[in-house]
Amino acid sequence: MASSSAAPAGSADSTATIRTTKRPKYSKFTQQELPACKPILTPRAVISAFLLVTVVFVPIGVVSLMASRKVVEIVYRYESECIPGDVQDKVAYIQSSANKTCQLKLPVHKHMKSPIYVYYQLDNFYQNHRRYVKSRSDEQLRDPKKESSTSTCKPEDTVDGKPIVPCGLIAWSLFNDTYSFSRNNENITVNKKGISWKSDREHKFGKDVFPKNFQNSSIIGGAHLIESIPLSDQEDLIVWMRTAALPTFRKLYGKIEVDLNEGDSIDVTLENNYNTYSFNGKKKLVLSTTSWLGGKNDFLGIAYLTVGGLCFFLALAFTIVYFVKPRQLGDPSYLSWNRNPGG
């Protein structure tokens, strides 16, 4: 009887041991025994790799740099010029109801083929500030039934107990300088259709969501919105609401769809309304053509040329070393314990 009752007890102990083990199930993956490629970095292989990178990167860098240099840009900083000389307090002036119309002349030094993109550039404006970025309601922008969803929009969430549409600091600070252009006393039309992302117009801003109580508080932050136009058609707002990652950024204002010839003088009538003076910001008007690579940006081409040149230098250095002072691959005499046996 004793022997028969001992067997189940031993079996129970064995089962308990199996259940409590933490050893993982054996596999080649968990034990890092899968087949792997371990290339041997011979001098020829390393030099060939550097030369390959050189051959690929240098032509790309040259083509990118040439494409960037073909872009024609006119950049004009105007926030200081558009303030009367007798004004001492710029912030008080920009917040007043005084006439802020400013006349500028932009000379065209090189032929600009249409379409010509009109941008406004702001410097020292931190759209990436955490509180600023979070001060919006995406639900409210999409759905008219969510117009009261303003909990994330403080301090621009309500006015007199009524929800603001669109709410939040981003919409409240909408850029409101305006530009109109003429050449030889003939107006140049600026097309403001299609300046925003199609995905934003169709999915992020509702076609049946209309502005309400916007800029009705005591402090006006920026531009007003037309209450009869849905948010999906207010493209200046859509462009502004896509916040920039850096404190210096450009945003698309419109497109000029006629060529500008070399020697032309463009007359600009500018409404200098936006307050950048309280934080020492800068405002610039930019007219730019584009290439197949986009706007003017020399960085990409210079980066490719730099990497390609560095790889060529390394390939040349390794080649010289390889021929001047060669050594046998896998020579054990170079091991530290063989080179210094007494150490």
UniProtKB/TrEMBL annotation:
Keyword Transmembrane listed? The answer is: yes
Q: What is this protein called?
A: ALA-interacting subunit
Q: Which species is this UniProt entry from?
A: Lupinus albus (White lupine)
Name its cellular compartments. Membrane
- Describe the family membership recorded for this protein in Swiss-Prot or TrEMBL: Belongs to the CDC50/LEM3 family.
Alphabetically sorted, this entry's keywords are: Membrane, Transmembrane, Transmembrane helix
Provide a GO CC annotation, any one.
endoplasmic reticulum
The membrane topology term of the UniProt record is:
Multi-pass membrane protein
Q: Where are the transmembrane segments?
A: 45-67, 302-324
Q: What is its main location?
A: membrane
**Annotated region (Disordered), positions in chain:** 135-157
